Amino acid sequence: MDKAFTNELDRSTEGRVFFQAIVSMAQALGMVVVAEGVENARQLELLEELGCHEAQGYHVGRPVPPGEMAVRLAAEATALAEHV
Fold it and tell me: What is the pTM of this model?
């Protein structure tokens, strides 16, 4: 879902209703919905309530250079392996 729709989640009832309709259609079709432009905890909370579990945006993580992303992913993989 485009950021324009995500922005309306915590601003209006209509925004939430529209988003829920899209999530419901996607789930019925076996599709995954990714919400773009998630900028605050309330938006992320509403997305979870609506059944949308994929999100991207500044609240989830700021853009990083490719080299830094590789380091972060390696560190996360190491941490996960230590807990297994």
Answer: 0.76
